[in-house]
Specification:
By secondary structure, this protein is of the alpha+beta class. It has helices at about 10-25, 35-40, 45-55, 70-80; strands at about 35, 60, 65-70. It is built from four helices and three strands.
Length: about 80
Amino acid sequence: MQDNPSLTTIERQSQEDDALLSILICTNNHRPRSEAEIERAMERDTEDSLRRLYSGGLIHRSHGFVWASQAAVMADEIHE
């Protein structure tokens, strides 16, 4: 993900969170992914985004793995 200097911090964080959650909600494969795998896919440090999504109840985290919560999956399905 390339940085866009014209975005505010909130807009940039929102885009990062959305991209990360999209990886986890991939309709073909709802499976836990390692935090390292997510960082490689995003090509950046994802700790802040993971914290925001976790505190919002959109992901679960355990022992270095993350996966989308049922609420996040259902919200995604509603918006399709």
